[in-house]
């Protein structure tokens, strides 16, 4: 009986010692991680979680950095800068060099900072499943946001508020008008129907009706014309609106529509005009300029 009590007491003591050791390791990890984060954040004032290599190399030679990091670590960081194929060093890369090892506790400390694990008691690193919306936002950031640091900021902070509804609404309106005239005229072809007598068609003989200079965009000459414009608006225009905002993209779109009717009235004054092609071409031009910015 006494022996069993002694064994039970020993087990309790061993468990307490293990818990104490684990707690001490957690405290040490937190302290070390906080030290690395504080040092890294001093040279990352914008809080993007990464520092461009040119700025980081300047930081390596600063007195403040030299006082916190030993020469061997600074040499390793300088070598990493020379060998790196990326534009910036992330917090995790910095921690990797500063620790010099990749133990389970170290991986958890790094991923815990990035909120990629639920707790440090997990046996495996638990990565939360990424939603479809977050995947789409990440893809749009990679394709439509110019600078690398801005991409990360956009991905982390995009909230879809206010929602990018301008081009969605325009698409639904154009589709609705096409359906209405298709049903009324009783035909559907690749190049028709064309509602010439509509109040919205731009006509040279009715130039004084100012609304026609804009509202001709809601009509289309056939399903090919319609589908092309709608696809560009959704696949190109919507991501641009998510990145640059409704006000900017809406202005570009409407300016393209107005330029189409004004240009036609000057250079081809006998032509009837329908379709949102002017706005669509403006979106394509905006996308081209965006590609040039992304590739720089």
Features:
mainly alpha, membrane, transmembrane, 2% strand, Rhomboid-like fold, 2 domains, 296 residues
Short note summarizing the structure:
This protein is an all-alpha fold and 296 residues long. The chain is built from 13 helices and two strands. It has a two-stranded antiparallel sheet with strand order 1-2.
Chain-wise SSE layout:
Blueprint: H1 2-42, E1 50-52, H2 53-60, H3 63-68, H4 71-83, E2 88-90, H5 91-99, H6 104-113, H7 132-144, H8 148-157, H9 166-185, H10 212-215, H11 223-244, H12 246-267, H13 277-295
Describe the fold and architecture.
GO terms for molecular function: serine-type endopeptidase activity. It comes from Strigamia maritima. The chain has 296 residues and is mainly alpha-helical. It has 2 domains: 1-126, no CATH class; 165-295, Up-down Bundle (Rhomboid-like fold), CATH 1.20.1540.10. The protein is built from 13 helices and 2 strands; from the N terminus they run αβαααβααααααααα. The chain has helices at 2-42, 53-60, 63-68, 71-83, 91-99, 104-113, 132-144, 148-157, 166-185, 212-215, 223-244, 246-267, 277-295, and strands at 50-52, 88-90. α9 packs antiparallel against α11 (223-244). The termini are far apart.
